[in-house]
UniProtKB/TrEMBL annotation, chain A:
It comes from Thalassolituus marinus. InterPro entries: AAA+_ATPase (IPR003593), ABC_transporter-like_ATP-bd (IPR003439), FeS-cluster_ATPase_SufC (IPR010230), P-loop_NTPase (IPR027417). This is Fe-S cluster assembly ATPase SufC. Residues 2-246 form the ABC transporter domain. The keyword Ribosomal protein does not apply. Pfam families: ABC_tran.
UniProtKB/TrEMBL annotation, chain B:
NCBIfam families: sufD (TIGR01981). SUPFAM superfamilies: Stabilizer of iron transporter SufD. Residues 19-165 form the SUF system FeS cluster assembly SufBD N-terminal domain. It comes from Thalassolituus marinus. It comes from the Bacteria. It holds the Pfam family SUFBD_core. This is Fe-S cluster assembly protein SufD. Residues 172-403 form the SUF system FeS cluster assembly SufBD core domain. Belongs to the iron-sulfur cluster assembly SufBD family.
Length: 252, 451
């Protein structure tokens, strides 16, 4: 599915990722945990092609294609999806218009027919319901005035509409209360599929009670310093990250 | 060139048939215009606004023009159940107009005795309140005016329909000038929606519209005013709106200049009595070589008034815009609350904006907030859209549209929003596929309440 090798990346000339290796197979859920400043969010931004994140070394191959030279929109069309930690508000652009533009672009790339407006509206309303957002959110500005939980559910709705192959959830649990967390987790679990993989970036073990990962990795100082099964998350919850920060004992 | 323009415009003023009602005003206007100096780059209020394109032609009186399909379409605002007065090249089009059936609406030339008395009393009375915000093109309007629209909404009267006044232009053998004049008098407790609209068909034409609107909003009266400049790219438009606000009155307005070769638009609001409020939003979107210049001035002359002004502009290609937002708080105008925001987007390196908030505050117990920004499109928003598969160019179109659409969505009359949205979408997404998503829901009839 995706193969990340020896990834080095800079932000404003500061090296953040320092040789990150990660192999993710189809259908797998990988959790990435780690202390503040370890490079967790940088990983999501680098993979999705954000300006200002400069890859200096290494490779990222998604389904056999090198994506590092691709524009962000090309990566999205190839099946990569980043659920933002802080979804952006775009006043004046309706959620529905935005979603239609997005789904049309991805479908066109996949050689699928465009949905007409009425079909799309029906589909969008279904997905709204699935993430427990009122359909009135479709005609509001993109994320405009949404609460933290509503923004995250809007991210999830986009993910459901686009049906990506690789979903990167960047601290999707931040700012969510327990109820919202459960709704989001249920949505993610409903999307688990033998062909779809997830990278779940989080600070807290709590999310992983709901979205149970196949693998847990600890990212510290720009590289993966420990990998294990879901029980590793519990161990981290108990011991913190301190005991791992200086170790250098393994990449996934 | 400037002197020629002046001489020639004065000759034109002398040649038009005068209304006896207006002879005094015409004479005053001619005198003032003859004495006025044409603005140069050193004239502060015209510093960034070159009139070269205006001065390049001689403008005569237009021949009577018939209507055509494009003009009929231009005069139609779908979904707005308006009473209309439509002028084509300055002449009333009976075919397109029905508002003269209303007792509140008349032309200067058709005014009865009572209406004539009102015109004599009020015409030019708001303009003369301006303290330095008036200019020689207002004098020229006074010199030339030989017809106009009087709207008189009586005490506690409410205009049941919006009133639409359209000044349209079409082709003419020679370059021509149109003098547009509106006097709107709202008595105590009156309520109305007035759409003042300037447009043209697509035929090649060279014209100069000089428009002057004076508005008196009486005590407790409320006006919703739209001033829409949708003229074609080569048009020349210099217009002023002067407003007199009574006690606890409200002036709510939306001013749009899509852009023409030159658009200069002055807006002067006089808070003459306590408790009055004005709420003004505005948009300018020049492209190619167009120039739009908005000069607004809020005169807070008395205590306990509030004003809120929000203008946004997007400049594309080599277009240029000027926004000068003056707030003048007089010494006695305590407890004033005045806000002004002007945000601008430049889409190219050769586009230009000159924005200047100009605050003069002589009272000490007031709140006055202002902000002016010039920026490119928000990188975060662009990346967000692109990360969802939307191309960079379409993302730019969507973001530009949203920046303006935010103000359109806030308009109280949905018909105006619906009129303008497609025009704006096409302006940003010049290739059809780029504007597609902004319009398809409307095309499918699932915009607004149905969505």
């Amino acid at each position: 599915m995706i193969s990340i090798k020896n990834l080095h990346a800079n932000v404003e000339d500061k090296q953040i990722l320092k040789g990150l290796n990660l192999e993710i197979g189809p259908g797998e859920v990988h959790a990435i945990m780690g202390p503040n400043g370890a490079g967790k969010s940088t990983l999501g931004n680098v993979l999705s092609g954000r300006d200002g994140y400069e890859v200096t070394e290494g490779s990222v191959v998604l389904n056999g294609k090198d994506i590092l030279e691709m524009e962000p929109e090309e990566r999205a069309r190839e099946g990569l999806f980043l659920a933002f930690q802080y979804p952006v508000e775009i006043p004046g652009v309706s959620n529905l218009e935005f979603l239609k533009a997005s789904v049309d672009a991805v479908r066109a790339h996949q050689g699928k027919d465009a949905l007409d407006s009425v079909q799309f509206l029906k589909l969008a309303r279904e997905k709204c319901k699935a993430v427990n957002l009122d359909a009135s959110f479709l005609k509001r500005g993109v994320n405009e005035g949404f609460s933290g939980g509503e923004k995250k559910r809007n991210e999830l709705m986009q993910m459901m509409l686009l049906e990506p192959e690789l979903c990167i959830l960047d601290e999707t649990d931040s700012g969510l209360d327990i109820d919202a967390l459960q709704v989001v987790a249920e949505g993610v679990n409903a999307m688990r599929d033998p062909k779809r993989s997830f990278i779940v970036v989080t600070h807290y073990q709590r999310l992983l009670d709901y979205i149970v990962p196949d693998y847990v990795h600890v990212l510290a100082n720009g590289r993966i310093v420990k990998s294990g099964g879901k029980e590793l998350a519990l161990e981290l919850e108990e011991k913190g990250y301190g005991w791992l920060e200086n170790s250098d004992n393994g990449a996934a | 060139m400037a002197e020629q323009f002046q001489t020639q415009q004065l000759a034109l003023a002398n040649s038009v048939a005068q209304l006896p009602l207006l002879t005094t005003l015409n004479a005053q206007g001619r005198e003032a215009f003859a004495e006025a100096a044409m603005p140069t780059r050193k004239t502060e209020a015209w510093k960034y606004t070159s009139l070269t394109a205006l001065l390049a032609n001689e403008y005569g009186a237009p021949a009577v023009a018939g209507s055509n399909e494009q003009l009929t379409a231009a005069a139609t605002i779908n979904g707005l159940d308006a009473a209309r007065l439509v002028f084509v090249n300055g002449q009333l089009s009976n075919e397109l107009s029905d508002a003269l059936a209303l007792q509140q609406v008349t032309l200067f030339s058709q005014a009865n005795d009572g209406q004539q008395a009102l015109i004599s009393e009020k015409l030019n009375s708001v303009l003369t309140q301006a303290q330095g915000s008036e200019h020689l093109f207002n004098d020229l309007n006074n010199a030339n005016v030989n017809e106009g629209v009087l709207i008189h909404v009586g005490k506690n009267e409410r205009l049941q329909q919006p009133l639409q006044i359209s000044y349209l232009t079409t082709q003419n053998a020679n370059p021509f000038a149109v003098t547009a004049r509106i006097l709107l008098v709202m008595e105590t407790g009156a309520d109305a929606t007035v759409v003042e609209h300037y447009g043209s068909d697509e035929h090649a034409q060279v014209n100069f519209t000089n428009a002057l609107t004076e508005i008196l909003v009486g005590d407790n009266a409320r006006l919703q005013h739209y001033r829409l400049n949708l003229m074609q790219e080569e048009s020349l438009h210099i217009g002023s709106t002067h407003i007199d606000l009574g006690r606890d009155s409200q002036y709510n307005a939306f001013h749009l200049a899509l852009g023409s070769r030159i658009t200069r638009s002055d807006l002067v609001v006089n808070h003459n009595k306590g408790g009055s409020h004005c709420e003004i939003s505005g948009v300018y979107i020049p492209q190619n070589q167009q120039l739009v210049d908005f000069h607004t001035c809020i005169e807070h002359k008395v205590a306990h008034c509030t004003s809120n002004e929000v203008f946004r502009g997007i400049m594309n290609d080599k277009a240029k815009a000027v926004f000068n937002g003056r707030i003048h708080i007089h010494p006695q105008a305590q407890k004033t609350l005045a806000e002004l925001s002007n945000k601008n987007l430049l889409l190219t390196n050769s586009a230009e904006i000159n924005t200047k908030p100009e605050l003069e505050i002589y009272a000490d117990d007031v709140k006055c907030a202002h902000g002016a920004t010039v920026a490119q499109l928000d990188e975060k928003g662009l990346f967000y859209l692109r990360s969802r598969g939307i191309s960079k160019r379409e993302a730019e179109v969507i973001m530009s549209f949203g920046f303006i659409n935010e103000l359109l969505e806030a308009l109280p009359d949905e018909a105006i929003t619906n009129l303008l949205r497609p025009i704006l979408a096409q302006r940003f997404g010049r290739e059809q596929d780029l504007a597609l998503h902004l319009l398809e829901n409307e095309a499918a009839g699932i915009a607004g309440e149905n969505a």
